[in-house]
Amino acid sequence: MKGGVASGLVYARTFTVLSGKYRFRSIAGSSAGAIAAAFVAAAEYARQGGDPTAFTRLREHCEALPALLPGFFQAEPRFRPLMKALIHIAPGTGRARFGSALISFWRPLLTGALVGLAILIAVYAAFDIHFLAASSTAIPGLILSVIVGAVVGLAWSLRRSLLVDLPMTNFGLCAGLGSATGRKDITNWTHAVLQEIAFGAAGRVEPLTFGDLANRGINLRIIAANLNFSRMEVLPDLSVAARFLPAEWARLFPDDLMAPLNPASFNGPVDLPTPGQLPVLVAVRMSIACPGLLEAVPARLASGEQVLFADGGLVQNFPFEIFDEQVPERPTLAFDLATLRDDEIDRLSTVAEALDRGARPARILTLRDFLWSLIVALREGATRTAMMKASNRDRIFQAWLRSDEGGMDLDMSASRAQGLMAHGEALGNYALTGFDFAAHRARRREAEGRPDGVSR
């Protein structure tokens, strides 16, 4: 499952549809797709344990999402102007609203303007200049002082937020935990839903682990970015031996998850759990740490140096090939989130169908379009090339979203959120009828130069 911040709402109903036909053995997700992957794994875990209602619980929780989404990402007071501006100009929100983004910083703008005006008045007073007598120069000077003051006030505010405050919070506007408003935050909600899907309303307190899933034949893999070493981590395995500081993680994880991780309530470095004992929530929280939005998750090496784990979408936003070498004869279906041009109407397809009808280039008309295209090309260029292989085209199902759907639209209306979930339900039904395992195996063997019936 692909990442995409709020676009991940598409997955809310997709897998409840697929659960009527498929047993989920191997599940992978990155960024927003990591939440969906974890929920599907938890539901399959319960079903394999004899609970037939787990996927019903998954769907019920997802149906409640539209009302909860606006409270999921709650910035600290000092970061709220930045958060509002981000929502107004980030890709995925449709046309950038730069005016609205600027108004988000009304306090430093007003303060700077007043200071600029005060300085002008002081200069006039110092040189004994009467405003009315010098009206020909006074009015332009008044306008200029207000504008310059506002710009300086905004620059000073941004300098402090970006260069001083943001590094102190591991480069995230939101911790993802805790709420001064009483609304549910993304980490507590994800933890509560995972536990209830896996164990029922009166289930166990101990968090769901990767070992729990493996014991019932479920192979969950979550993608995260190791920022300090600039590489991909496929959780629950880590490429480095890491520890964590309970005081740091207490800001990011619920108390009932921290208790089994640190039963002695020790504040010094604690070894991370083994892969089998690692709580699924820890991996999900690492993978959804979108840069600038959610704080990266810190860990410590034996030397004491800090390592930050962040958004899996930075290194692999669509891990559709992750299980291919493990079980080559059981292809993994993949679900892509693509962007629809304004003049296109097809909302669902496989990669093969999209290629057959002719590739349509993204429009690059503004500097914002250009910069976003650069980011996508750097992050997803290799993956998108691999998607076009003959052996992959028919197993990748694409949900085409308009430019104003999902993305960073974190305060979307309930009706728009419901629309995304309905789109996801259609995607699930499309995959049910649009994939033929036998035909795929034959095409894969042909593409790899193997005669039919000869295994790898």
Describe what this molecule looks like in 3D:
- Helix content is 45%, strand content 11%.
- The chain has helices at residues 11-18, 32-48, 54-63, 65-68, 80-89, 98-103, 106-126, 135-168, 186-199, 210-214, 246-249, 255-261, 280-287, 351-356, 367-387, 414-434, 437-447; strands at 26-30, 172-174, 219-226, 231-235, 243-244, 270-271, 292-294, 297-300, 306-310, 334-339, 348-350, 396-401.
- Strands 1, 3, 4, 8 and 9 form a 5-stranded mixed β-sheet that branches. The protein has a 3-stranded mixed β-sheet with strand order 10-12-11. The chain has a two-stranded parallel sheet with strand order 2-7.
End-to-end gap: 26 Å
The helix content is 40-55%
Average pLDDT across residues?
Answer: 84
Secondary structure category: alpha/beta
Strand content: 5-15%
Name the helix and strand elements from N-terminus to C-terminus, one letter apiece. HEHHHHHHHEHHEEEHHEHEEEEEHHEHH
The radius of gyration computed from the alpha-carbon positions, rounded to a whole number of angstroms, is 25 Å
| Global geometry | globular
The poorly predicted ranges are none
Number of helices: 17
List the defining traits of the structure above:
alpha/beta; 17 helices; 5-stranded mixed sheet; 3-stranded mixed sheet; 45% helix; 456 residues
Give me the secondary-structure topology:
Blueprint: H1 11-18, E1 26-30, H2 32-48, H3 54-63, H4 65-68, H5 80-89, H6 98-103, H7 106-126, H8 135-168, E2 172-174, H9 186-199, H10 210-214, E3 219-226, E4 231-235, E5 243-244, H11 246-249, H12 255-261, E6 270-271, H13 280-287, E7 292-294, E8 297-300, E9 306-310, E10 334-339, E11 348-350, H14 351-356, H15 367-387, E12 396-401, H16 414-434, H17 437-447
